[in-house]
């Protein structure tokens, strides 16, 4: 389908070139060769000929425009952006070229932002990095930019978990809670991006670790909102239900009824659920 669309874009450019009998310039020879190859649907061959045409004559507007369209068809957004920018510089009156150049400039900036966000996460700036990737995923309409952000986030999740583990080893429990939360919320973003019906397994160990870190920090209820958010999106997530049950049990007094319901939904053994319900009955007396 994309090839059919690009044919409609490239052919008018190539066919609009006036035929020159006799001696042709080197640039035009490659341009006509590109037209022949494009007619045969040899996009890679046409691309090489257009590049040679531009090498022979960097001011060849038609070659830049055709090459930009072919780069789009081949999925090379970076190269397409360069060609649209070059074409727009050669013809500043063409609004469509200018719009395309701006679009690809924005795409490049967003792609660079994804890479920088991942670097920030590796450097320990987890909250800032995740926020940047989330912003790209939720606000941009450019599919390639969203895809780069999703890939960066996927690579970031195990890194975030390791940073949290290191903070626990250093007994920086409050920091670890914040870090693990960013990792879990990143996993939630990934699940939404892939339209998954359940939270990915990479979040499970962090959900257990964050509760342990919260207890060590003396704030066992610090994970209350997080687990409710997870269950709000994925009510059948067993790990989230089981870990939220532990939060209810840490309350003063413990909420055995709610904890029992959560453990039952989380697939806890019947004996464990029954024991909690018995404790709930005793506390109600």
Written description of the protein model:
- By secondary structure, the chain is an all-alpha fold.
- 77% of the residues lie in helices and 0% in strands.
- The chain has 14 helices and no strands.
- The longest helix has 28 residues, at 95-122.
Quick description:
With 285 residues, the chain is mostly helical. It has helices at residues 2-15, 26-39, 43-56, 61-73, 77-90, 95-122, 126-139, 143-169, 173-193, 204-216, 224-233, 238-249, 256-265, 270-284.
List descriptors.
elongated, 285 residues, 0% strand, mainly alpha
What overall form do the CA principal axes indicate?
elongated
Taken as a percent bin, the fraction of beta residues is: under 5%
Tally the helices.
14
What is the makeup of the main sheet? none
Order of helices and strands: HHHHHHHHHHHHHH
Chain-wise SSE layout:
Layout: H1 2-15, H2 26-39, H3 43-56, H4 61-73, H5 77-90, H6 95-122, H7 126-139, H8 143-169, H9 173-193, H10 204-216, H11 224-233, H12 238-249, H13 256-265, H14 270-284
């Amino acid at each position: 389908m994309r090839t059919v669309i690009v044919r409609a874009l490239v052919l008018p450019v190539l066919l609009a070139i006036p035929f020159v009998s006799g001696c042709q310039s080197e640039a035009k020879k490659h341009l006509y060769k590109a037209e022949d190859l494009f007619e045969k649907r040899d996009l890679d061959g046409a691309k090489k000929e257009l590049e040679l045409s531009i090498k022979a004559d960097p001011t060849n507007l038609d070659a830049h425009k055709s090459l930009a369209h072919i780069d789009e068809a081949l999925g090379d957004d970076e190269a397409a952006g360069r060609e649209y920018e070059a074409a727009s510089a050669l013809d500043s009156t063409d609004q469509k070229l200018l719009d395309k150049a701006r679009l690809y400039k924005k795409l490049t900036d967003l792609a660079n932002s994804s890479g920088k966000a991942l670097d920030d996460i590796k450097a320990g700036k987890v909250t800032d990095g995740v926020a940047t990737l989330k912003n790209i995923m939720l606000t941009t309409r450019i599919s390639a930019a969203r895809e780069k952000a999703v890939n960066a986030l996927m690579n970031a999740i195990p890194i975030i978990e390791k940073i949290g583990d290191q903070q626990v080893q250093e007994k920086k429990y409050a920091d670890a809670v914040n870090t693990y939360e960013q990792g879990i919320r990143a996993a939630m973003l990934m699940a939404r991006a892939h339209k998954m019906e359940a939270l990915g397994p990479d979040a499970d160990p962090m959900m257990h670790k964050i509760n342990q870190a919260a207890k060590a920090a003396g704030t066992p209820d610090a994970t209350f909102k997080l687990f409710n958010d997870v269950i709000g999106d994925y009510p059948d997530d067993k790990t989230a239900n089981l870990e939220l049950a532990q939060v209810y049990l840490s309350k003063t007094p413990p909420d055995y009824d709610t904890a029992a319901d959560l453990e039952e939904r989380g697939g806890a053994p019947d004996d464990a659920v029954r024991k909690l319900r018995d404790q709930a009955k005793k506390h109600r007396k």
